[in-house]
Amino acid sequence: MGLFTKFVSQTRKPEGFLGKLMVGGMNSGHAKLADWGMSHLELKKVENIAELGCGGGRNASELLKMYAAAKLVALDYSSLSVEKTKETNKDFIKEGRCKVVQGNVMKLPFEDSSFDLATAFETVYFWPDLKQSFSQVCRVLKAGGVFMICNESDGEDKTSLKYEKIIEGMKCYTPEYLAAVLKEAGFSEVKTDHHPSKPWITVLAKK
Ligand SMILES: C[S@@+](CC[C@H](N)C(=O)[O-])C[C@H]1O[C@@H](n2cnc3c(N)ncnc32)[C@H](O)[C@@H]1O
């Protein structure tokens, strides 16, 4: 495997030296996309947030700024991502508003009906079983809670499909496919949006 493939493969689960470099770059690399995604959030009363596949933790910080009365749990299965998210959110952690846990979306370590909002930026490509992981997200959301997925791939753009071929375990999805699996997993309403000039998508699913 060449160095480029080894490096981009770190997006799936950052590990070792290359993983550290990748996690460092995620916060700035995904900021514009994440801000576009967050601009879709219309929930007014948000007390508890789960940020899933949190990477470097920048989006956790932004959500905590956006919902100033909320608490957030950030989760990732990579120890490097957990470490970096803790560093990025150290002030929120001190204030008692942020917790960071190592865990897998396939079996979320949270109680049923605990969150008003769950988010997943640039990560569902790597979730091994969408229906199972989406059912887990549905389980931990309160009734009326919202799950937001934000991806820079609409499942059809050439760049991401090229990455899909070289990154083991990566799969890009169309918004229609994601909406169908979300409904199968128990969500009642799903709305999708496509960026006007980029292949970016946001999917909002209500429990
Ligand atoms: C491309 S990064 C995106 C990170 C961050 N959300 C962002 O937008 O910058 C994908 C992240 O999802 C995490 N991830 C992938 N599959 C996961 C799973 N099954 N459970 C928990 N975390 C997962 C990876 O470890 C990685 O940190």
Task: Describe this structure as you would to a colleague.
This protein has nine helices and seven strands, in the order αααβαβααββαβααββ. The protein is an alpha/beta fold. The protein has one domain (3-206): Vaccinia Virus protein VP39 (Rossmann fold, 3-Layer(aba) Sandwich), CATH 3.40.50.150. Strand 1 (48-52), helix 4 (58-66) and strand 2 (71-76) form a beta-alpha-beta unit. The mean pLDDT is 95. S-adenosylmethionine binds next to loops.
Largest sheet: 7 strands, mixed
The rounded Rg comes to: 16 Å
Counted by DSSP, the helix tally is: 9
Give me the strand/helix succession: HHHEHEHHEEHEHHEE
Query: What is the class in the CATH system?
Result: Alpha Beta
The global form is globular
Largest sheet, spatial ordering of strands: 3-2-1-4-5-7-6
The overall number of domains is: 1
Beta-strand segment tally: 7
Give the strand content: 15-25%
Distance between the termini: 42 Å
> Which hetero compounds are present in the coordinates?
S-adenosylmethionine
Question: What is the CATH superfamily label?
Answer: Vaccinia Virus protein VP39
**Overall pLDDT, averaged?**
95
The CATH topology: Rossmann fold
Considering DSSP H and I runs of 4 or more, what fraction of the residues is helical? 25-40%
- Can you tell me the residue ranges where pLDDT is under 50 for at least 5 consecutive residues? none
Core attributes:
single chain; 207 residues; alpha/beta; Rossmann fold; 7-stranded mixed β-sheet; 9 helices; 7 strands; 40% helix; globular; binds S-adenosylmethionine
Set out the fold topology.
Blueprint: H1 3-8, H2 16-29, H3 31-38, E1 48-52, H4 58-66, E2 71-76, H5 79-88, H6 90-94, E3 98-102, E4 115-121, H7 130-140, E5 141-151, H8 158-166, H9 175-184, E6 189-194, E7 201-206
Parallel strand pairs: 1-2, 1-4, 2-3, 4-5
Antiparallel strand pairs: 5-7, 6-7
The structure holds S-adenosylmethionine (SAM).
